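B., you asked whether I could sanity-check this one before it goes into the benchmark set. Here's the sequence:
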Amino acid sequence: MTKKALVTGAASGLGYELAFLLAKDNYSLFLVDIDAVRLEKVKTEIQDNFKIEVFTIVKDLSRKNVAQEIMDDINNQPVDVLINNAGFGLFGSFVDTDWERESEMLHVHILTTTHLTKLVLEGMVKRGSGKILNMSSLAAFQPGPLMSIYYASKGYMLSFSEAIANELKGTGVTVTALCPGPTKTAFQKTVSSDTRDNRITFNMASAKSVALYGYNAMLRGKSYAIPGSFNKFLAVIPRLVTRKAATSIVRKIQEKNREKE
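And here's what the prediction gave me:
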């Protein structure tokens, strides 16, 4: 039977790279993204290189109950691998940032991701096999002034993923939270409505290398994965200093990144 994988945010960046890794391993693909044009280009590119089926699903993941819509669109077919990759950032002081955009972020990062995980997980457990990769971030390990909602949502995703990974021990199903640092993706262009803000360039990794690291971690069933030795070091720092100090450090980094622009 052909293995099937579902990837959100598949039109670019890490989602794009992960889709190709799955295609190389002969998974049929359900690719989800809001960008219909780019999604269709990805489908064509994959099918030009691999003899697999690719189905595209154009959805706005910030909408209520969109996870159920996705499952309806695929006729509740069994999903062997779920990659919850879709997401975006928003830079600025919480008192000034746009609530509508923040609400959309919370839906994409938390509500839709959690709901889709729940919908797919039941079948995986019944079959006794399955893998889930949830996109967290290095941001998950500390509070993030000037990107407060983003950091908090990624903290949720790490905690949620580790918790259910523990619950699923012995079921044949694994959950992995991928926690990359700054990565060369479209995320850098959507952090702010003013794309000059917070365009992080320090310690920047390629999407291809991060995707491969996360993919291999998922295959091994790791509960979380942090690409890069320096990022592993950064993830530990909040445990070595007070939370107040860690928060202050992040604030200074954010401000310096903005000043560079």
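One thing to flag: The radius of gyration is 18 Å. Otherwise nothing jumped out at me.
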